[in-house]
Design a protein that fits this description.
The complex is a heterodimer.
Chain A lengths: L6 E12 L6 E12 L3 E5 L6 H8 L7 E6 L2 E2 L5 H11 E4 L11 H11 L4 H14 L15 H13 L5 E5 L7 H15 L5 E5 L11 E6 L2 E7 L5 H5 L2
Parallel strand pairs in A: 3-8, 3-9, 6-7, 7-8
Antiparallel strand pairs in A: 1-2, 1-4, 4-5, 9-10
Helix pairs in contact in A: 3-4, 3-5, 4-5, 5-6
Chain B lengths: L1 H10 L1 H32 L1 H5 L5 E4 L16 H6 L4 E15 L5 E9 L10 E4 L10 E5 H5 L21 E4 L2 E10 L9 E5 H7 L9 E6 L5 H12 L2 E4 H15 L2 H30 L1 H9 L4 H33 L11 H27 L10
Parallel strand pairs in B: 3-8, 5-7
Antiparallel strand pairs in B: 1-9, 1-10, 2-3, 2-6, 2-9, 4-7, 5-8, 6-7
Helix pairs in contact in B: 1-11, 2-9, 2-11, 2-12, 9-12, 11-12
The chains are: A alpha/beta, B alpha+beta.
The structure holds adenosine-5'-triphosphate and magnesium ion.
Chain lengths: 243, 386
């Protein structure tokens, strides 16, 4: 059993207002949340409740308008732009709803991108990318272009890309919502299988209640708040892993 | 990330080709127009280029260019000869005389009358016959383009090629009989009139009776005397204008630049090429960037800094710039080679290649600039937007 002791992310009173004046939108109204190292936390809730906004703040690609978000001891919003970018490159892996693979690159080249950003040499990066692809069961498709792959396969490649540089935090925004139910289940199961590691935290935004059982904890959001947090470990394991 | 940048660009085949087409168009048009412009400008002083021997040209102070002949008194020749540092000085007649062709038509010819004793100022290259043949009675030498072109006789049989003027043939210059004793090769000149060489004394008998017939005095400098220095001395001593060969070429070219619409016309064409090229390349490049904004956003989220993205876009611009430049200049040069034997003036010195390279660089920079702005200000948070 993985120890859930160390804290990866601490959000305290995080607020986010989009726009100004009459047309402004309060997307986050003071979010308090902890994400522990080694856990898979799911962020769920109705459309527009602020899930994407929250993981954007956690991942350091969006500045909160209030409160603070500490990631591995660093207050990202307080960092200068260039250091924050470098921090993201080193410590955070991303999985997007629309995969966001570069269409001109092969699967292996796409997976190598985070390593290239970190300044690794191409040959070495491609070698590690190949290994990451094998982990997600895509080792034989490393030369394929994204357009030659199915949605599920593209998301597998994207997962390999999110993990290739061994980040301490992986954020996924609706990684399965572009996929059919079965494929979504398989992708989520894969994420659980390959992405969980000691010292790494996984935050997944999802709508799909059929994948909730893959989570260690589930944070339910509504209207810019965390409503409740359930700990799946409290439930019997048989209930958790039944589809 | 360099290969990622290049693959991104090449992967978008349609835009990649579109950008290259824009830059190729600009570089082709700029190179070609400048080359023709340079060719024409070189032709304006073709006659000076052909006259290799003199270091200094002496002329009336009001002369503005080579074809702007303002005759001098014959005695000026002796005054020039008296100037310190002059090794030799010979007369040159240059004038337009009408030739009557065997079909009865008239053709204006550019007639050079060379010093009878030395024949200095003769054609740079003979195709047939020798310059010395000008010492024979009534002799003239004509240039090869004229011999097969403007001075050629009617075809032997109807519908055939015009009959070239050959050595031994007779032409009529201003109602005087002249015998062709040689064919020479000269630089094409601006007006592209037939060039006819004869001796100074014979030229003055061909020419209409006038008080003054000495067009130019050609001067050789003594060894060790700088032509510029000699010009100053001749001017001081005689009150005439004296210019070095290069200086006179420049004066002539400047006259055409200043008093004809040539530079404006070419300037407009070059500017148009530049603007249209910038518009096509810039627009397409910008569209390419916009299409890939999400990708750039993802790269930014994944930790690619602005410096990295800037380098990627500059590299993309550099690639299309080099290909477009190479294609444009290549096509222009091919055009030049193909038109080598035609009437077209085309000259492609390295300076033009440098000008085109600069223009292409500016086009690429402008194209890249708006894209760079877009990418730098891009919020990485867009990647999570559906
Ligand atoms: N860039 C923006 N400008 C203005 N308002 C925004 C912006 N992004 C999000 N919002 C608003 O903020 C609120 C929260 O948006 P967010 O995308 O975080 O919701 P979400 O929970 O991810 O929704 P969904 O499940 O539909 O993805 C919504 O009301 C949305 O309209
Ligand atoms: Mg969302």
């Amino acid at each position: 059993m993985i120890q859930h002791t160390e804290t990866a992310v601490v959000c305290r009173g995080v607020k986010k207002v989009y726009g100004e004046g009459a047309s402004s939108v309060q997307a986050l109204r003071g979010v308090d949340l902890e994400v522990r190292s080694g856990e898979l936390l799911m962020l769920v809730g109705p459309s527009g409740c602020g899930k994407t906004t929250l993981i954007s703040v956690i991942a350091g690609i969006l500045d909160p308008t209030g409160g603070e978000c500490i990631v591995f001891g660093e207050n990202l919003a307080a960092m200068p732009q260039s250091r924050r970018t470098a921090f993201r490159g080193k410590s955070i892996g991303f999985v997007f709803q629309a995969y966001n693979l570069l269409p001109a690159l092969s699967a292996a080249e796409n997976v190598a991108v985070p390593l290239l950003i970190l300044g690794q040499r191409r040959a070495q990066a491609l070698q590690r990318a190949q290994a990451a692809l094998e982990k997600v069961g895509m080792g034989d498709r490393s030369h394929s272009r994204p357009s030659q792959l199915s949605g599920g396969q593209q998301q597998r490649v994207a997962i390999a890309r999110a993990l290739v540089h061994d980040p301490r935090l992986v954020v996924c925004d609706e990684p399965t919502s572009a996929l059919d139910a079965d494929t979504g289940q398989r992708v989520m199961s894969l994420l659980r299988e390959v992405a969980i590691a000691p010292g790494r935290a996984l935050v997944i935004v999802t709508h799909d209640s059929r994948t909730f059982h893959f989570a260690d904890r589930i944070a339910r959001m509504d209207d810019g708040h965390i409503e409740s947090i359930t700990d799946n470990a409290a439930e019997p394991a048989s209930a958790r892993h039944a589809p | 990330m360099n290969f990622v940048a290049l693959k991104m660009l090449i992967g978008d085949r349609a835009k990649y080709i579109g950008i290259i087409v824009g830059i190729t168009f600009a570089s082709l048009l700029i190179t070609q127009q400048l080359a023709i412009f340079t060719g024409i400008m070189t032709r304006t002083f073709g006659a000076i280029t052909d006259l290799g021997q003199p270091d200094v040209w002496v002329m009336d102070p009001k002369v503005q260019f080579i074809d702007d002949v303002k005759p001098l008194q014959d005695t000026e020749l002796y005054r020039v000869r008296g100037v310190e540092g002059v090794d030799w000085a010979v007369p040159l007649y240059k004038g337009l005389l009408k030739a009557r062709l065997s079909n009865g038509n008239f053709q204006t010819c550019n007639v050079f009358g060379l010093d009878d004793a030395t024949l200095i100022g003769g054609p740079p290259e003979m195709v047939e016959g020798r310059v010395e043949d000008l010492r024979r009675a009534d002799s003239v030498i004509v240039d090869e383009y004229a011999a097969v072109g403007k001075l050629a006789g009617p075809p032997r049989e109807p519908g055939g090629k015009p009959e070239p003027l050959r050595v031994g043939a007779t032409i009529e210059l201003n109602d005087h009989r002249a015998i062709v004793v040689g064919i020479c090769r000269v630089q094409r000149t601006f007006q592209s009139q037939p060039v006819v060489y004869t001796t100074y004394s014979r030229a003055t008998t061909f020419a209409p009776r006038e008080r003054k017939l000495l067009s130019f005095v050609l001067v050789g400098a003594k060894a060790g005397v700088e032509p510029e220095e000699l010009c100053a001395r001749i001017q001081a001593a005689t009150g005439l204008a004296a210019q070095t060969r290069e200086g006179f070429k420049w004066t002539t070219a400047m006259y055409f630049l200043k008093y004809t619409g040539i530079p404006i016309n070419f300037g407009i064409a070059v500017l148009l090429g530049f603007l249209v090229g910038t518009a096509i390349a810039g627009q397409t490049f910008y569209n390419f960037t916009l299409d890939n904004l999400k990708q750039f956003g993802a790269l930014k989220a994944m930790g690619a800094g602005n410096a990295t993205l800037l380098r990627m876009i500059l590299l993309q611009a550099l690639l299309v710039g080099m290909i477009g430049y190479g294609l444009g200049v290549g096509v222009a040069a091919t055009f030049g080679i193909l038109s080598r034997n035609s009437e077209l003036a085309f000259r492609l010195p390295w300076q033009i290649l440098a000008v085109t390279a600069t223009a292409v660089t500016v086009i690429c920079m402008l194209s890249a600039l708006i894209s760079i702005r877009k990418v730098i200000t891009l919020e990485p948070a867009i990647v999570f937007k559906g």
